[in-house]
Design goal:
The protein has a three-stranded antiparallel sheet. A three-stranded mixed sheet has the order 5-4-6, with no helix packed on it. The longest helix has 13 residues. It is globular, with a radius of gyration of 17 Å. The protein is α+β, with helices and mostly antiparallel strands. The mean pLDDT is 85.
């Protein structure tokens, strides 16, 4: 997903174009990591000093519902990022320090399917691995 695709999707679904929504999308295009609503609010307040947390969160939720953003939970808080542009099935490694993500193509469901769990119909799953990227390992080990 990119800014143009997201704006087109909003337009096609009948949602109004606003400067706040466009800036929010540009923020996610620039950041290749999961962002909390608080981080988004802080970034947006430089151009929109009166923007409220409710406005930011409402738009993040809308973008999640429209599958523009994907969401995960880190440290008990929802975090958002642009939905991956790839259409093939994959999962993510997520750095707990900087929030960067990396795609991984291995899936634990492959093992489950190979080992005959036909008694259970899986309708969806999510698999994420948390740790520290190579740059953050240096920072974390020195604290």
């Amino acid at each position: 997903m990119n800014v143009e695709q997201a704006l087109e999707k909003l337009k096609n679904e009948g949602y109004k174009f606003t400067g706040k929504r466009e800036q929010l999308l540009h923020l996610f295009a620039e950041e290749k990591r999961y962002l909390s609503a608080k981080e988004v609010l802080t970034e947006m307040q430089s151009d929109f000093p009166n923007v409220s947390f409710d406005t930011v969160y409402r738009n993040l939720s809308l973008f999640e519902d429209m599958e523009i953003l994907e969401v995960t939970e880190l440290e008990g808080e929802k975090r958002f990022r642009f939905r991956c542009s790839t259409t093939h099935h994959h999962h993510h490694l997520i750095c707990l320090e900087c929030g960067k993500t990396k795609q991984i193509h291995a899936c634990p469901m492959d093992w489950l399917n190979e080992n005959g769990e036909q008694e259970f119909e899986v309708t969806g799953h999510k698999f994420e691995i948390y740790g520290y990227c190579s740059e953050c390992q240096l920072v974390v080990s020195h604290t």
